[in-house]
């Protein structure tokens, strides 16, 4: 399994009560399942509205189970932001 850092921003950071934390997962879907297991409350609801970057690349509409994670990589959890 790849060791990755999940970084939370804005409402996701508030819900997780941490800025970042380590996970072991091979796909984005596995990493997000682990996040939901560790944070079953508000963060689970916030994740429904989030977009994600994996190593700086937008995930977009790709299936999370198809997005492979690299050892030492980073997943950015980005809730919708106001303004533009």
From TrEMBL:
Annotated organism of origin: Streptomyces viridiviolaceus
Protein name: MoaD/ThiS family protein
SUPFAM superfamilies membership: MoaD/ThiS (SSF54285)
UniProt superkingdom: Bacteria
InterPro entries per the UniProt record, alphabetical: Beta-grasp_dom_sf, Mopterin_synth/thiamin_S_b, ThiS/MoaD-like
CDD domains named among the record's database cross-references: Ubl_MoaD_like (cd17040)
């Amino acid at each position: 399994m790849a060791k990755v850092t999940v970084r939370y921003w804005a409402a996701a950071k508030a819900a997780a009560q941490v800025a970042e934390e380590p996970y072991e997962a091979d796909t984005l879907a596995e990493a997000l399942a682990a996040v939901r297991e560790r944070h079953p409350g508000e963060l689970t609801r916030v994740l429904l509205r989030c977009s994600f970057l994996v190593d700086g690349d937008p995930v977009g509409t790709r299936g999370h189970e198809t997005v492979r994670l690299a050892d030492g990589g980073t997943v950015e959890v980005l809730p919708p932001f106001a303004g533009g």
